[in-house]
Amino acid sequence: MRLARVRGNVVSSAKVASLSGFKLLFVQDIDPLEPSETDTAKGAGDVYVAIDLAGAGDNEIVLVTTGSAARVESAGQYAPTDAAVVGIVDIVNYNGRVTYVKR
Fold first, then answer.
1. Could you say which DSSP state residue 99 is in?
2. What is the pLDDT, as a whole number, of residue 84?
3. Confidence at residue 15, expressed as pLDDT on a 0 to 100 scale
4. 52 pairs with which residues across the strands?
5. What residues contact 95, with CB distance under 8 A and at least 6 apart?
6. Which CATH architecture is the domain 2-101 placed in?
């Protein structure tokens, strides 16, 4: 799994039926030591599209699963996706140091 921050969303009115009803999010991988809200954050990674299975909102830190694991959950098992938001993060505690607490 990856830690990422929700940066926005994608609206697609023409898509395969198995994606109907799912929100598509732009997410950006983050550095667990410095989960900053700015796009220019040190350690900020790739931006990519992920299917939202957790009800995430803008700027939230989320757990993203990729590859075949993105289709494990029953609601998304038939969706053609390689990235899925599967959780919303409350706290990041890295090496005994709290680096993020959800507001």
1. E
2. 92
3. 83
4. 23, 85
5. none
6. Beta Barrel (2.40)
pLDDT digits (tens, 9 = 90+) for 8-67: 999 998 888 878 888 999 999 998 877 666 545 555 788 999 999 999 999 999 999 988
Q: What is the pLDDT of residue 86?
A: 93
Q: Is 83 helix (H, G, I), strand (E, B) or coil?
A: strand
Long-range interactions of 7-13: CB distance < 8 A, separation 24+ = 7/39, 7/47, 7/58, 7/59, 8/58, 9/58, 10/49
Token pair, residue 71, equals: 């289709």
Distance of CA 91 to the CA centre of its chain: 15
Domain regions of the chain by residue span: 2-101
Which residue in 78, 80, 102, 82 sits closest to 2, CA to CA?
Answer: 82
